[in-house]
Design a protein that fits this description.
The complex is a heterodimer. Chain A is α/β, with parallel strands linked by helices. In chain A, 52% of the residues lie in helices and 13% in strands. Chain A folds into two domains: 2-137, Response regulator (Rossmann fold), CATH 3.40.50.2300; 149-220, Winged helix-like DNA-binding domain superfamily/Winged helix DNA-binding domain (Arc Repressor Mutant, subunit A). Chain A has eleven helices and six strands. In chain A, helix 2 packs parallel to helix 3, helix 8 packs across helix 10 and helix 9 packs across helix 10 (186-199). Chain B has a five-stranded mixed sheet, with helices on one face. Chain B is built from eleven helices and nine strands. The longest helix of chain B has 59 residues, at 242-300. Classes of the chains: A alpha/beta, B alpha+beta. At the A-B interface, helix 1, helix 4 and helix 6 of A face helix 7, helix 8 and helix 9 of B.
Chain lengths: 221, 491
């Protein structure tokens, strides 16, 4: 994968670069703030040349104001280059940030806690999924979005088991992975998923990420 | 040797700006004026202008004084009379500002305005505040006393000046005086100081000029004395009292303490974020990689090398502990100061509501999300208040939902008398549909009992805010927190 990193902490930036390079990925740039990210992205991709980068990894909180410049840069970048894989990561998960990030097309987007870097294998898998156009959300993001939309009629009708399944779906897991995580049979998961779609009035679809989008659209609404 | 303790933040808190206690008055001492240079000093003439100006204002001011006393005493038996009297007392402040302006422009006495008048709550409260307005009464006293000093001062000053100038130039203009006949039948042209004693000989004319010169030089000295009396009155009756200055000073230092505490918490969170947290994430990442490599090594070689297995176990343990430490650290940092507050109260409360164990509906007035709508320390306090109250509701109310409403307060609550605190407020209302019946001893909470709420009450009071609890049994609990939009005592 060709990856561009924007992270203001030198320790973390260098560690991330070293990690990705050891795993055979090409880190084409590592910058310390949002302006440098814009410049580097323009240099690397050029006008209309989307696809030159697989994933852009962006820290939300960067100089100069240390608030949400990373997030704004990521949203801008996605608006100019729809479909560009972007992983936003941060020390905290904020509901409003998640809503802003997911307000548009959620394909190829990720929002993870920085902690997730610790599980190297899973982190790299998440990057692969983003590069492949899927949506990757931190379990904490999902919990918060579920919490924020608590009290909605549709969700209220779900059984606790269905809620669990929906949370895992929202993280972009396949039915097989959900079955494994919840110690259920594949068939039981399928049954739950069908029931969820029924209760939420959503048309069933085979593609994994479209399930996520459907769920997210529901959560946002 | 310049060793610094490890972990000590490199940046030191900004030293509080040294501010001398506000001066009650400009030094009110009688400044001497040179005897010979007096009449030619600009100051002398501006003092004369002051006396002439106040000749007019003083008489109107005295009339105001008598009307106020008369109206208050005469109609005081009726409510309307008391109200009119109270309004007139407060209105005397306007006279105070007029004289302060005159004094500043012409006498060089720079007296700060007294603490602004605060309307009381309700009809009787409002009347009480008006009738008890110290600054108004002091201004009234000034109107009476200054009338005497100004009138006498103006008379003396004008007489000395007129005689001085007149005498000095007598030799020129006496010839146009009408002819007068003395007792002995002789005709004279000039001032008559006694029977048959006219100032019309050269020696007497010269003497007259000498006396005029003397009076002219005495004039600034006399005038300065009277003006100084007025100046003393302005300083002592039209400025703020020592007690109110002390209150303002305490308020300022308290406000600074509140803001310093907030700034310090922000800095600690920033240091944690940029230093410790980033470093821990890097460590966790390296441990994660080490774990994967060891796992690969132990399974790849199929060896039963116990060292590799042991090492894998240890690294796994360290990896898990590090991740736990990161989670704990995140919660601690969030408790110290949630960084999302920099994106506005609405953004921060959104996350708070989503993480709340009970259904929490947050409604923040959009006007409050605008930049500088709330001072940072107030914003942090508002967040802390909502967090504390929502936690309490989730723990004790046993309700289904908590509603949080944050809006600009429509009616400004009258702050403590003598306070210089701001008039814009924000209201935080946290309401639940739980069991109610919450009995909270807010004035003197025992330690350990509702200590979270007690701490909140203390912090709210530190900015002159209020916290009211309405909790009828069986009908839910409503807590209203009213906070000023800026920290009192700070600009």
């Amino acid at each position: 994968m060709r990856i561009l990193i924007a992270e203001d902490s030198a320790i973390l930036r260098d560690g991330l670069v070293a990690l990705l390079q050891r795993r055979g990925h090409e880190v084409v740039g590592a910058v310390p703030d949002a302006d440098a990210l814009r410049a580097a992205y323009a240099d690397l991709v050029g006008p209309g040349g989307a696809g030159a980068l697989d994933v852009v990894v962006v820290d939300i909180r960067m100089p100069p104001t240390f608030t949400d410049e990373g997030l704004r840069a990521a949203i801008e970048l996605r608006a100019a280059h729809p479909g560009q894989g972007v992983l936003v990561f941060s020390q905290y998960v904020e509901t409003q940030f998640a809503s802003r990030l997911l307000a548009d097309d959620a394909r190829g987007l990720g929002y993870l806690l920085k902690d997730r870097v610790a599980d190297v294998g899973e982190f790299l898998a998440a990057l692969e999924r983003i590069a492949g156009g899927q949506t990757v959300l931190d379990p904490e993001v999902v919990t918060q979005l579920m919490g924020a939309s608590r009290g909605d009629d549709g969700l209220g009708r779900l059984t606790p088991r269905e809620r669990e399944v929906l949370e895992l779906m929202a993280q972009g897991r396949s039915n097989g992975a959900i079955a494994e995580a919840l110690f259920l049979s594949y068939g039981a998961v399928e049954k739950n998923v069908t029931s969820i779609f029924d209760k939420l009035d959503l048309p069933q679809d085979a593609a994994d990420h479209r399930r996520v989008l459907a769920v997210l659209r529901y959560l946002r609404g | 040797m310049a060793a610094t303790a490890p972990g000590q933040p490199s940046s030191t808190p900004p030293a509080p700006t040294e501010q001398s206690a506000p001066q009650a008055t400009t030094p009110a001492r009688l400044e001497p004026v040179g005897f010979f240079s007096g009449p030619f000093k600009r100051r002398t003439w501006s003092e004369l202008l002051f006396l002439v100006c106040t000749l007019v204002t003083s008489s109107v001011g005295l009339a105001y004084f008598f009307v106020t006393i008369g109206a208050g005493a005469g109609f005081g038996v009726t409510v309307v009379g008391l109200y009119v009297g109270g309004s007139l007392v407060v209105g005397a402040r306007t006279w105070g500002s007029l004289y302060r302006a005159e004094g500043r422009a012409l006498l060089g006495v720079d007296v700060p305005a007294p603490v602004p008048f605060r309307r009381g709550r309700g009809f009787w409260g409002g009347m009480g505040h008006m009738l008890g307005d110290t600054a108004g009464w002091r201004a009234l006293a000034f109107l009476f006393l200054s009338f005497v000093t100004n009138l006498v001062g103006a008379v003396f000053s004008l007489v000395f000046l007129a005689y001085g100038l007149g005498g000095l130039t007598y030799g020129i203009w006496y010839r146009w005086l009408p002819l007068q006949q003395a007792d002995d039948g002789s005709w004279h042209r000039g001032a008559q100081y006694g029977p048959g004693w006219f100032v019309d000989t050269p020696a007497r004319i010269w003497a007259q000029a000498g006396v005029g010169l003397l009076l002219l030089f005495l004039w600034p000295q006399i005038q300065r004395g009277f003006v100084h009396l007025t100046r003393l009155l302005i300083v002592n009756l039209l400025g703020p009292t020592q007690a109110s200055l002390r209150v303002a000073d305490l308020e300022r230092s308290r406000g600074r303490t509140v803001e310093d505490a907030d700034a310090r918490l922000r800095r600690i969170e920033r240091d944690l974020h940029d230093g410790t947290q980033a470093r821990l994430v890097a460590v966790a990442m390296q441990l994660g990689e080490a774990k994967e490599q060891l796992a690969g090594a132990s399974s790849g070689t199929q060896s039963d090398d116990p060292t590799v297995a042991d090492a894998l176990g240890l690294v796994t343990l360290a990896h898990d502990s590090t991740k736990e430490a990161l989670t704990e650290l995140r919660e601690i940092a969030r408790g110290i100061h949630p960084p999302v507050l920099d994106n506005g109260l609405a953004a921060a409360l959104g996350t708070l509501a989503a993480r709340s164990p009970v259904r929490t509906v947050v409604d923040v007035d959009p006007a409050l999300s605008e930049r500088d709508a709330l001072a940072p320390a107030i914003e942090a306090l508002a967040y802390y208040a909502v967090a504390e109250l929502v936690t309490n509701a989730a723990k004790h109310a046993h309700g289904s939902t908590v509603w949080v409403l944050v809006e600009p307060a429509a009616t400004a609550r009258p702050p403590a008398p003598g306070s210089t605190s701001p008039t814009h407020f924000v209201r935080i209302r946290v309401r639940d549909d739980g069991v109610g019946g919450a009995a909270v001893n807010l004035t003197d909470p025992r330690p350990g009992e509702g200590s979270g709420l007690a701490g909140l009450v203390e912090r709210v009071r530190a900015v002159d805010g209020t916290l009211d609890v309405v909790s009828p049994a069986g009908a839910g609990t409503r807590v209203d927190v009213l906070l000023p939009t800026v920290v009192p005592g700070e600009k």
